[in-house]
Prior knowledge:
The chain is mainly β. Among the domains are: about 35-120, Ubiquitin-like (UB roll) (Roll); about 215-285, Roll (Ubiquitin-like (UB roll)), CATH 3.10.20; about 345-605, membrane protein fhac: a member of the omp85/tpsb transporter family (Porin, Beta Barrel), CATH 2.40.160. It has helices at about 25-35, 55-65, 75-95, 145-150, 165-180, 230, 245-255; strands spanning about 5-10, 15-20, 45-50, 70, 100-110, 115-120, 130-135, 185-195, 200-210, 215-220, 260-270, 275-285, 290-300, 305-315, 320-330, 330-340, 350-360, 365-380, 390-405, 410-425, 435-445, 455-465, 470-485, 530-540, 545-555, 565-575, 580-590, 600-605. Strands 13-14-15-16-17-18-19-20-21-22-23-24-25-26-27-28 form a 16-stranded antiparallel beta sheet, with no helix packed on it. Strands 1-2-8-9-7 form a 5-stranded mixed beta sheet, with no helix packed on it. β15 and β16 form a beta hairpin. This is BamA/TamA family outer membrane protein.
Amino acid sequence: MQGDLLTSKPENTDGYRIISCRNPIRLLSAGILILGFYSFSAVADDVHFAFDGVPPALLEKLHKAFPPVNVADKANRLDETELAAGLRLKDAMQAYGYYDAKWKVSTETSGKKQDLLRFSITPGQPIRVRKIDLQKTGTGSNIPVITRLFNQFPLKDGAVLDQIDYEEWKGKAIAVLNKQGYAKAEYTRHEILIDKKAFWSEIYLWLNTGPRFRFGSITVHGAVHYPRWFVERYVSFKPGDWYAPAALAVTQSNLRNADRFSDISVHGDIHAEKNNTVPVIINLKSMPAQHIKVGAGYSTDIGPNAALIYDNYNAFDQAQHVRVSILAAQLNKNASILYKWPIGKNIGSEYVAQASYQNQTLTAYDSNELLASAGRQWTLRDDNNRNRSSTLEALLNFEQANYTVAGEVNNSFYIYPSLQYTVQDFRNILRPISGYSLTARTEGASKIWGSSADFVRFSARGTWRARLSRQWVLGTRAKLGAMWLNGPITALPPNLRFFAGGQNSLPGYAYQSQGPLDSDGAVEGGRLLAVAGVNIQRFVSKNWAVVAFYDAGNAFNSFSNVRLLQDVGLGFRWYSPVGPIRFDLAHPLVNPQAPAVRIAFSVGFSL
């Protein structure tokens, strides 16, 4: 038999049916898609589902299987939703062991664009398990993880037949064995015998682990202009490791994220295994190493802007990356060059050198800065979580600046080391509605090294988002900073002081416009920073959401003298193929300044 559910064969002479499979998990997923078909209209009525007459454990499962849906045209769609839900309920009740279930459905309307389909169910007598025949053979049959799984088989003698738990356990066992190197693990028998008249079932599940395999030779074809040692950095396994298909997927993801290769395939040829080793073939095609990008746009923080960027991802045929960029904006002009050359065996392990010139003309200050940095970056890999990325960067920075803040003209020179840690874990960075990110940085300077003043500075910023339901997403964000400075704040250039305001800080206030005031009432920046915000998103279609947000905080010099600012706002999110596009309207609640409502707009992921 191939599988276990819902396609019945003719009854045999003993009066029972052998049930073979359309996967019940796939069937339930299809039902969710049927119900979810109506959830993509921008103007919709909510339809919820309620179930009466079923045991508590089953009621919980049905609630998970029947999330609320949106119906665009209530008059025409509600009947269709009821029909789809009825078909879905029949499949669900059988999958959970109730083949005799019957029900009546009624519609309740709240008058607030919300309807309730209530199913009054008579579950009938369930199918119970009277026999479980679990067997395991093969070289991996006695490894601890498989022994543990067999001891935790979810169905017991006398229990109601739950084919969803059964299927999930089957898949988990194979996945565990594949991860351990048992690439040919299979079920030699997997069937459920059901007598629907006598209400009993028998489970036969025989697992053969097969032999255990290791990775063999790794052959790379294509991408000949890149050094082999560089390509091999993206391979998440080495010859002799236990063979695991997941490791092939990680390697393919690594190569795709390198932005250097196309037509990527990573294939373990299990049919060519020899002495239980599996050869791996990697096929690559190099993307053009040199790119020129020209763009124009608008940012709330710096105004209209244009950019020219040149990239060379394979300088000197050594996979070294050179980037030259020029940004011309209304409030910010920047020219920079970045040079990275990879070293070692780990992805993201590289030396970094960069130099830039920046001119800013903002509400609180004007500045001209020359900055040069050199150092090392490490990427901390987590092969168990392909969504999670983290980097550690250590730099030595040289900065010459002249600036005007609060009407006072100054200049400074600093040599300071910095250490920055960044971690990001979003399930989908183009649709960042579940996950978190954090960047923390510490730096310091001393007059002994030739700097204008002694200081130690710490800053951090982060965001966290969680999907509460199909339609709702909760998000929070925060920016913190603290600094010890031996001398007046005027000794520091603006980029080393703390200011508040702007799209990713307090969007109701102009960019970098808020902070402690000098004796004349002009903003001069502070030694401390604390800004936090919360937002709630409501999806009105698959890719569109409305958002409401609230932010509070400011830059300040002491905790006893905090001028707390607040803003509120409404906005839209479009989760486009290139990342989220944000459009917000923010209103300052404290110390309002013209304009009373500020527009915040951005494209792509941001904190």
